[in-house]
Amino acid sequence: MDLGIAGKRALVTASSKGLGRGCAMALAEAGVDLTLNARGAAALEATAAEIRDRFGVKVTAVAADITSDGGRAEVLAAAGPLDILVTNAGGPPPGMWNDWSRDDFIRALDGSMLTPIALMQAALPGMMAQGWGRVVNITSQSVRAPLAQLGLSNAARTGLTGFVAGTARQVAPQGVCINNLLPGTHETDRGLSFDRAVAEAEGIPLAEAMARSTARIPARRYGTAAEFGAMCAFLCSVHAGFIVGQNILMDGGAVNLTM
Fold it and tell me: What is the mean pLDDT of residues 204-221?
């Protein structure tokens, strides 16, 4: 399918690895020019070089902390006017409800709620003025079904979801579509970190910990960054103009919901 976005300009944050990288790859395959961002310069430059070589699109890589005012300003200046924004960030650490201080919550909000909001506030005026734009926020299945050990993530990402619910409907008349993409467990460093923690805590092989986890997923496997990226690219396409303010689960059926 031709996604109709060749030549568009996109910013994808946290895109050197994992799901962000998958989204960047899929957008590049559709002919989108990219600004990529992550903290680690080496991995970011490697991803940027691979995308340039494979797809021949323009790629600007900016190693910076997107959660800081200075880092965000640097990335946005390098990106210039945007047609597409994909926000992504590593989630806060797991723990118990009484583990976290106010500072922990502020850090979680900065990374998983306030930074995506700030990026949208920067990008949306230009999108609205040109009458077309796409925003995809990578959040988590936990906004539909909270995970007990991820209280920081549950709180911050649910706050972002509430902001998007109203904002998406305010900007839709100008041809701008904002949606959230909710991953379950995928074959990424972040996704496998929980299995590694279980394997270490219980003294079992990693493969056994993974087998336990996948047994709880109806698809009986973890997702891949490539298929996640393909869904992201579709939501950024000309075919997604009637999808507004939605929270789309990509979890292999793990969250058991009727609606």
Answer: 93
Q: What is the pLDDT of residues 7-22, one digit of tens each?
A: 999 999 999 999 999 9
| Tens digits of residue pLDDT in 138-165 | 999 999 998 888 899 999 999 999 999 9
CA gap 213, 211 in Å, rounded:
5
Residue 62 has pLDDT above 80, yes or no: yes
Q: For the residues of the chain, what is the DSSP string, one character each?
A: ---S-TT-EEEESS-SSHHHHHHHHHHHHTT-EEEEEES-HHHHHHHHHHHHHHH---EEEEES-TTSHHHHHHHHHHH-S-SEEEE--PPPPP--TTS--HHHHHHHHIIIIIHHHHHHHHHHHHHHHHT-EEEEEE--GGGTS--TT-HHHHHHHHHHHHHHHHHHHHHGGGTEEEEEEEE--BSSHHHHHHHHHHHHHHT--HHHHHHHHHHTSTTSS-B-HHHHHHHHHHHTSGGGTT--S-EEEESTT-S----
- CA–CA distance, 142 with 99 (Å, rounded to integer): 19
DSSP per residue over 171-222, as a string?
Answer: HGGGTEEEEEEEE--BSSHHHHHHHHHHHHHHT--HHHHHHHHHHTSTTSS-
